[in-house]
Amino acid sequence: MEKTNLSESLKKLGKIVDWFESQEEIDVEKGLEKVKEGVKLIKTSKERLKRVENEFEEVKKELENEKE
């Protein structure tokens, strides 16, 4: 499974926000595509954050077991 790069996802989300802010008049079709792309990026970022959180918990448990 490919790991999502959070930094890249945040950069892409930033570019989408910039695109919306730079438009004087939003093309509805293009805007919808940008929104869909943003939703996908947010979803994969949340999934990756959850995996990272789980990895940190595993490392924490390993460290606690070493102390005992």
Average pLDDT? 91
Tell me what portion of residues adopts beta-strand conformation.
Answer: under 5%
Give the biggest beta sheet.
none
Please mark out the parts with pLDDT under 50 across 5 or more consecutive residues, or reply none.
Answer: none
Number of strands: 0
Order of helices and strands: HH
Q: How many structural domains in the coordinates?
A: 1
Overall shape: it is: rod-shaped
Gyration radius, in Å: 18 Å
Give the termini distance in whole angstroms.
Answer: 34 Å
Oligomer: single chain
Total DSSP helices: 2
Global structural class: mainly alpha
Please bin the fraction of helical residues: over 70%
Structure description:
This protein has helices at residues 6-22, 28-67. It has 68 residues and is mainly α. It has one domain. Helix 1 packs antiparallel against helix 2. It is rod-shaped, with a radius of gyration of 18 Å. The model has no long low-confidence stretch (mean pLDDT 91).
